[in-house]
Amino acid sequence: MSNVIDALILDLIEWIGPDSRPYSEVIEAWRTSCPRLPVWEEANERGFVERHHEAGLEALVYVTSSGKEFLRKNRPRQRRVEDLRPKS
Q1: Which of 50, 65, 70, 77 is the most exposed place for a label (fewest CB within 10 A)?
Q2: What are the angstrom distances between the C-alpha of 5 and each of 42, 43, 52, 69, 72?
Q3: Is the pLDDT of residue 79 over 80?
Q4: Which of the 8 DSSP states describes residue 22?
Q5: CATH class name, domain 3-84
Q6: In this predicted model, what pLDDT tens digit does every residue of 15-62 receive, in sequence order?
Q7: In the 3-class helix/strand/coil scheme, how is 38-73 assigned residue by residue?
């Protein structure tokens, strides 16, 4: 896969952040019909993000442990997903 797609997948992972985001929000922002930029589709296929739905609630998207590891390995000096969590 191209470096452009990898960079955009990293952006997607960072954008979702440490918590989940509503599926509708993620799709509105990241879905594309361009066959050269399948960011959402590629991130799903690689197992970096996952969609979770409970009956009666809106579906949510979250970063998987594989996605967090991909971010950690490829953007070590930038803020990581786990670093975005509020300190308690």
Answers
A1: 77
A2: 8, 9, 24, 17, 17
A3: no
A4: E
A5: mainly alpha
A6: 998 899 999 999 888 877 666 668 888 999 999 999 999 899 999 999
A7: CHHHHHHHCCCEEEECCCCCCCEEEECHHHHHHHHH
H or E element that contains 21: strand 21-22
Q: Where are the domains of the chain?
A: 3-84
Q: What per-residue confidence (pLDDT) applies to 3?
A: 86
b (16+ CB within 10 A) / e for 72-85: eeebeeeebbeeee
Global pTM value: 0.76
For 76, the 3-state DSSP assignment is coil
